[in-house]
Specification:
Chains A, B: Pathway: Cofactor biosynthesis; NAD(+) biosynthesis; nicotinate D-ribonucleotide from nicotinate: step 1/1. The structure is a homodimer. By secondary structure, the first copy, chain A, is α+β, with helices and mostly antiparallel strands. Chain A has 2 domains: 293 residues, nicotinate phosphoribosyltransferase (Alpha-Beta Barrel), CATH 3.20.140; 178 residues, TIM Barrel (Alpha-Beta Barrel). Chain A has 17 helices and 19 strands.
C-alpha cells in the first residue's frame, strides 16, 4: 500500500490543548485507563448533496501507529500546563502509545451518509480523548474535497478527463497535497501538482502559462528553427517558413487580419512545439483568441500534422469559456474540412478559468480554486463523541436536539434493494445480530424517531470493515459505489434524502439513556 | 527570527508540472538564463473588504533558500516528462538553485491593497518561472487567513481575547498549522493548536470538551475528594459536602429545581476544579445551561472562591450564544451580590459555537471553522505575472481588461496625509525618482487610467523593504498599521475604496507596451 510509505506527517502535539487538560484531569482522578469508546460522524452531507465520500482513513492509521510523545513534546507541554500540574503526569504521557486502541472504520472512499457513525475509536479514556482533534483534522478535509471531486466527476460524466490544479489556492503546501491526493481518489484523472505525483503516484499534467507566451516577442527567439518529421525520413525542415505559409492559409480561410496576429505568441507556440512536438497544447488567450491565439495555434498545429505529429489541443484561461469553446470548435472543423486534416477533429479544448460544478457541463477540464477550497462549503463538520465508558453507554443530550448523540457501541449495516441499489443504512447496537437478507426489519429513520419503518433487504453489507487498500483500488471503488447509488441520491441539486435509521434496540437504549440523563 | 528554525516544508516538486515543461522549452531555446522579472499581486481585497494583510513572506524566503532538486526529484521528473526530452535538461535542473534570484517584497504583515505589486522576483527566466506555484501557495492562504483574523479583531475591538481553534476543520495538518500561525499575526491572542505553540511560540489555551463532562455519571467518580485552600493554611477540606452546600444555596437563590441538576456534570466540574483550581473554565451546556450547567458551575466556583482560588469563567458551545451569555451574566451578578463574592463580577464567558465575523460583536472569544476556512471567501487570487525579460518590459493584454498587467520593473510608494493616514499607493517605474513629501504628484488611479489625479503627500514611505522581523514584531506591526488606516477603509462592510494609482511614467510605459502588443 503506497500511502504507508509516506513519511509520518502528524506530530502528536498537533491537537487542541484541551485534550491534554482533560487527559490530566482524568489521570488525576485515576480514570485515564477506563475503557472508552468514541464515535466519529458528521451531521449533514456537504454542498447540499445527498451523499459523501469518507476519506482520510489511511492517514488516521498512520497517525495511530506513530502516536508517541518525544521528550521535547513533553517538555513543551510542561511549559504550557499550569505549574502545579503533577510531574508524574508527564512521565505518564512519555510512555503512551496506541497499542491499547482499536479502530473500526468505514473503508477509505466509501459512499456514506450524514449521522452514520463512520469510525469507532476504543481504548483507554485518556488516550482516545487525546486522539480527537488529529483524527478529525485528518478526515474532515479529505472527505470534503474527495466528495467535491466526485460531484465534479458526476457533473462531467465518466469520459472527460479532469485535471486538478488547485495547489496555488490551497491552505498552504500540505493543504495542496491533501487536495491533490483526495480529488484523485474522488474521481479526477490528473493533477498539476508534481509532488503529489511523486508521493502518491497520481498522473501529472501541464503545459504552459501566459508568462511563457508573453516572454517571447519575435520569431528570432525561436531556436532551433528546424524540426524533423516524426518518422525521421527527411532532413529537418525550416519550421519558420513552413509556419508562415500555413498561417497565411489559415488567415485566408478565416478571413482574419494578419496585422493583428502577435508574432511573440507565434514564436512561443513554435518554440514549445519544437520542444514538445507530441504534446502541443498551448494557452491561446494571452492576447486575443480570435485575432491571434487560434490562428497561431492552427498554423503551428498544421505544421506538426504535416510532419506526422499529432497536436493535442488548446487551453482557454479567461473570458466566457462556453462561447469561446464553441468558436474554437468551429475553427477546428473548418481547418479539418478545408485542409483535409482529420486530426483537427480530435483536438481537445481545456478550460481552466474559475471552473465550478455548474460551469463544468459546458467545457472540458482543469479545476483549481473551486475544487480545492470547496467554495460551496469549505468545511465538513465531523465530530467525535463519547458513546461508552467502562461498558456503560454515554450520551450528550443537547439543547439543540440535532446535537444529541446515539449512546453505546454500534454496528452499521447497509441494506440493498433487489436492483442492487443501497436504500437504507441501519445503525444497530453492536450486541444485536445483524439484519438478514430477505427478512423484514423494523427500524426508526433518524430525525423521526417515533415512527418505525419495516424494510426487507435483498442483501445486507456491514459498513465498517478492514479499511486498507491501495489508492488505485480505492479510486476504482469510489466510482463503483457511486454507480450502485440510485440516481435520485446522486443529483447534485436537491437530491432525495437517503434514509439513515436506528434499530429498535438502539432507539430503546437511547431512550433509556436520555431518561437517565434527564432523570 | 523564530520562523527560520522551522524545518523546510516546501519541496521543489511542490509546483505545477507546467513550470517544468516551460522551463524545458526555455532551456531548449537557449533562453533559460535570460534575466526575467515577475510581479506577484492580487486583484481584489478579500471578503468585500477595503484592505488586506500580506503574509507568507518568511516562508517564501525559506523556500528560496532551500530550493534545490535532489537526485530523486530529477529522476521523478524524467519519468513524467516526454521520453524525447533532452537528458542534458535534467543535468541542468540538478544544478539549479536560487543564488541568482532577488526578491523584493512588501514586509510580512503589511496592510496592502488590490493590484499593488507586492513581490518582485527577478533572476534567470527558467528559475523564476519554476518558483511561481510554490510562492503563490505560500502567500495566498497565509494572506487570506491573516486578513480574516484582522477583520475578526476589528469586529471584536482591541481588548477581548481571541482564541483560534480551527485545527479540526482546516485543510489537513499543515493547513491547520498555517492557520494558527497567520491568525496570530493577524491579531488573535491564543490558539488551541499545541503544535503551533511548540513551533511558533503562540500562546496556547483550552479547557474541556463535552466528552469530558459526559464521561462522568456520579460524585463517586470524583477523586481525590479533598482540596486545600490556596494559602495551604488549613487541612484539605471535604470538597463534596462543601459543594453540595453551595449548590443548595445557589438553587435557592435562582429558584432552580435541584432534581434537574445533572450529578455527572457536577462530578466533572469538581474533578476538573481539583486538577486545575486556578484554571476553572468548564463547558456548561452539555445538558442544560439553565437547569444544570450554570448551577453546577456556580457551586464549584463558589467553593473555589471560599478556598481562595479565582475561577476563570464558562464556555458556551451551542444554542443562541447572545441570549445565553446575557442570562449567564445575570446569574453571575446575582451570586456576586447575594454571596458578596466580587470575583464573580470578573468571570468571563467564552463563546465557541460557529462564530462568524457578524456574530462576534455579541459574545466573547473562540473561533474555529469560519476563521480557518475563510467561509466568506475561501481563496485569495494572488497571481504571478511576467513584467520584464532581458530588460524589456512585458505585459499580458487580456480579453478581460482586469487581467492586463502593468509592464516593467516598478517601485511602490505609500502616500500619507497630514493626519498620518495612508491615502494613496502609487506604483512607479523603478527608474523614476520617488514621490517627495510636500510636492504635488500627478498619477492615474487604477481602473480609470484616463483621468489624472494630483496629490500632495505629507509623508512618503516605500512599501517594499527588507522583509525580515520576528513574529511578535510582525504581529505588533499589523495592529499599528491597521490603526493608521483611516476607519473608512477599515469598515468590514462596504468600505470606501483606497486609491491605488500608477505614476504618469508607468501609464505611458504601459500604453507604449499595449500598442506594441496590439501593433
Amino acid at each position: 500500500v503506497g500511502e504507508l510509505q509516506v513519511p509520518e506527517r502528524v506530530p502528536p502535539l498537533l491537537t487542541d490543548l484541551y485534550q491534554f487538560t482533560m487527559a490530566y484531569a482524568y489521570w488525576r482522578a485515576g480514570r485515564h485507563d477506563e475503557h472508552a469508546v468514541f464515535d466519529l460522524f458528521f451531521r449533514d452531507n456537504p454542498f447540499g448533496g445527498g451523499f459523501s465520500l469518507f476519506a482520510g482513513v489511511h492517514d488516521c492509521l498512520l497517525f495511530l501507529r506513530s502516536f508517541r510523545f518525544a521528550d521535547e513534546d513533553v517538555e513543551f507541554l510542561r511549559s504550557v500546563m499550569p505549574p502545579d500540574t503533577d510531574p508524574a503526569f508527564f512521565q505518564f504521557l512519555r510512555c503512551l502509545d496506541c497499542s491499547g486502541v482499536t479502530l473500526h472504520s468505514v473503508p477509505e472512499g466509501t459512499v456514506v451518509f450524514a449521522r452514520v457513525p463512520l469510525m469507532e475509536v476504543a481504548g483507554p479514556l485518556a488516550v482516545v480523548q487525546l486522539l480527537e482533534t488529529s483524527l478529525l483534522c485528518l478526515v474532515n478535509y479529505a472527505s470534503l474535497v474527495c466528495t467535491n471531486a466526485a460531484r465534479f466527476r458526476l457533473a462531467a460524466g465518466p469520459k472527460r478527463k479532469l485535471l486538478e490544479m488547485g495547489l496555488r489556492r490551497a491552505q498552504g503546501p500540505d493543504g495542496g497535497l491533501t487536495a491533490s491526493r483526495y480529488t484523485h481518489i474522488g474521481g479526477f484523472d490528473l493533477t498539476s501538482n508534481v509532488q503529489a505525483g511523486f508521493l502518491f503516484g497520481i498522473p501529472v499534467a501541464g503545459t504552459m502559462a501566459h508568462s511563457y507566451v508573453t516572454s517571447f516577442t519575435s520569431l528570432e527567439e525561436v531556436w532551433p528553427q528546424t524540426l524533423s518529421a516524426v518518422n525521421g525520413e527527411h532532413n529537418p525542415v525550416d519550421i519558420i517558413s513552413l509556419t508562415k505559409g500555413w498561417l497565411s492559409r489559415v488567415c485566408d480561410l478565416l478571413g482574419a487580419e494578419p496585422g493583428k496576429i502577435h508574432e511573440g505568441e507565434l514564436a512561443a507556440f513554435l518554440s514549445y512545439a519544437i520542444a514538445y512536438p507530441q504534446n502541443f497544447l498551448p494557452v491561446i488567450d494571452s492576447y486575443s483568441v480570435g485575432c491571434s491565439g487560434i490562428l497561431n495555434f492552427c498554423a503551428v498545429a498544421l505544421v506538426l500534422c504535416e510532419l506526422g505529429y499529432r497536436p493535442v489541443g488548446v487551453r482557454l484561461d479567461s473570458g466566457d469559456l462556453c462561447k469561446q469553446s464553441l468558436d474554437v470548435h468551429r475553427v477546428f472543423r473548418l481547418c479539418s474540412e478545408q485542409f483535409s486534416i482529420p486530426a483537427f477533429d480530435s483536438l481537445i479544448i481545456v478550460g481552466t478559468n474559475n471552473i465550478s460544478e455548474e460551469s463544468l457541463a459546458e467545457v472540458n477540464i482543469g479545476v483549481g480554486t473551486h475544487l480545492v477550497t470547496c467554495t460551496k462549503q469549505p468545511s465538513l463538520g465531523c465530530v467525535y463523541k463519547l458513546v461508552e465508558v467502562r461498558g456503560r453507554p454515554r450520551m450528550k443530550v443537547s439543547e439543540d436536539p440535532e446535537k444529541s448523540t446515539v449512546p453505546g457501541r454500534k454496528a452499521v449495516y447497509r441494506l440493498i434493494d433487489p436492483e442492487g441499489h443501497p436504500f437504507l443504512d441501519v445503525v444497530c447496537l453492536a450486541v444485536e445480530s445483524p439484519p438478514e437478507a430477505g427478512l423484514p426489519l423494523s427500524c426508526y429513520p433518524l430525525g423521526c424517531n417515533h415512527t418505525a419503518l419495516s424494510v426487507t433487504p435483498a442483501r445486507v453489507t456491514c459498513l465498517r470493515q478492514e479499511p486498507l487498500c491501495s489508492t488505485a483500488e480505492t479510486r476504482a471503488k469510489v466510482q463503483r459505489s457511486l454507480q450502485t447509488l440510485h440516481p435520485r441520491h446522486k443529483r447534485l441539486q436537491k437530491p432525495d434524502s437517503y434514509t439513515v435509521s436506528l434499530s429498535v434496540q438502539a432507539v430503546l437504549n437511547a431512550r433509556v439513556q436520555t431518561n437517565l440523563v434527564l432523570h
